[in-house]
Design goal:
Distance between the termini: 27 Å
Shape: globular
Strand order of the largest sheet: 1-2-3-13-4-14-18-16-17
Largest sheet: 9 strands, mixed
Structural class: alpha/beta
Strand content: 25-35%
Length: 421
């Protein structure tokens, strides 16, 4: 398979953040990485490969250089979550026999793009465990079209602004008069657990449609959850195969970027820095060595970038407008919503050139606020220079997004070079 095909398969195995983390762990296991537990000692050696999981939906993986002299880190970070709809507690709604589920939006969902599509849901069910402080999690992915959000026909007049409490509730069935339905009882039956043992659950509605290569010459990939699984895929393809002899290579995949990263699994938590300190101390470096190593460390935040949209030229900067299949995008913002600063940005541009991949620049059009990602939080929390990069995409936050096939190759090539240096 080429990288476009492998990306589509990867996305299909990652319907939501916890499943994405679980799939990454499986890949790391296959490549001989050792799993460490946060509540146990880190026992490390030079040349070793390791990973840690935080709250099921954040993975921090690292390899220790064979010739490591100081705890110097090369870090690439991306996020596993995507804009979607989350199923609320007590979600069952019956209206004229239609079974609906009560949901809330997660992140900046382009709501209209979710209408009239086959949808499914995945997540975790939590039941009683051995003690009240140690409940048991059950992963559930229904892997079949279960839901749909029907749009309103234009014959009823012009639709006003979408009401997220009313217009985007998915329907999943219709009842005959002699039946009833309860969502919690349904998932208990599917999980083969007693209904009374359910303590909690978290399910994410996801687009069931598989990604595809499109265009006259398969120029593009159209797929759900490209934001940010495209960058996760590119990082993993470089990280799991390449080793640095003098650095600690690190790949971090966080959760909750789409809602601000303020969680124990998010980029604003102390988890990443805590792990870096523990790695340094486990390798018998002093606290002073750790801080000296930070001075020679470098990081990159990898999230998607807005590609120039040929139908909306007026929304883009007049001299910095990345295009699909134009290569890696380095993102800049005077407001520091993107972390790129002079030293790290120049270094990463040189890494791109050394890898033989094209480089583009992105600025928001003046007067348009634009978005942000995890780079600024990581740069501030870790106190190391970071660069915000990405691959260009159209339809960002839609139920299906569009990227360039050649850009996928560029992303993989870049991270192989980054981790191999």
């Amino acid at each position: 398979m080429n990288n476009a095909e492998k990306l589509i398969e990867f996305i299909g195995n990652c319907p939501e953040a916890a499943f994405g983390a679980k799939y990454i762990c499986k890949e790391l296991d296959d490549y001989g990485f050792e799993r460490l537990e946060e509540n146990s000692d880190f026992r490390l050696k030079r040349g070793g490969s390791y990973y840690v999981v935080k709250n099921a939906s954040c993975v921090l993986a690292f390899t220790v250089g064979q010739n490591l002299k100081m705890p110097m880190f090369k870090i690439a970070a991306a996020h596993l979550d995507s804009p979607a709809f989350k199923i609320k507690k007590n979600p069952t709604l019956i209206d004229k026999g239609y079974i609906k589920l009560n949901t809330e939006s997660y992140g900046g969902v382009v709501s209209s793009s979710w209408f009239d599509r086959p949808l499914s849901f995945a997540g975790r069910l939590v039941i009683s465990g051995e003690t009240p402080l140690k409940p048991t999690e059950i992963y559930m992915d229904f892997k079949r079209p279960m839901l749909t959000i029907p749009s309103l026909a234009p014959h009823f007049g012009k639709k006003e602004e979408i009401n997220l409490q009313k217009d985007t509730l998915p329907i999943c069935g219709i009842l005959s008069k002699d039946k009833d339905f309860n969502f919690e009882k349904y998932i208990a039956k599917e999980a083969r657990v007693a209904y009374g043992n359910i303590l909690d659950y978290e399910f994410t509605v996801y687009n069931y449609e598989k990604g595809s290569e499109v265009g006259l010459e398969k120029d593009f990939v159209s797929a759900p959850r490209l934001d940010d699984l495209l960058m996760v895929y590119c990082i993993m393809e470089g990280f799991k195969k390449e080793r640095s002899r003098e650095y600690i290579n690190m790949a971090v995949f966080t959760d909750h970027e789409e809602v601000g990263s303020l969680s124990s699994e998010g980029a604003k938590s102390s988890f990443i820095r805590n792990c870096m300190e523990r790695i340094s101390f486990a390798m018998e470096y002093s606290e002073e060595d750790f801080y000296k190593g930070l001075g020679d460390s470098i990081g990159v935040s990898a999230d998607l970038a807005h590609a120039y949209h040929p139908n909306y030229a007026e929304k883009f900067d007049i001299s910095n407008f990345p295009v699909l299949n134009g290569g890696i995008v380095i993102k800049y913002a005077a407001s520091k919503s993107y972390s790129t600063e002079l030293y790290a940005g120049a270094a990463f541009r040189d890494i791109c050139l050394d890898a033989g991949v094209d480089v583009q620049s992105f600025y928001n059009r003046s007067g348009i606020k634009g978005g942000s990602t995890i780079g600024a939080a990581l740069s501030a929390n870790l106190s190391i220079p970071f660069t915000d990069i990405g691959l260009p995409v159209l339809g960002m936050h839609s139920a299906r997004e569009l990227c360039g096939s050649k850009d996928i190759e560029s992303g993989v090539k870049l991270f192989k070079n980054f981790y191999g240096i």
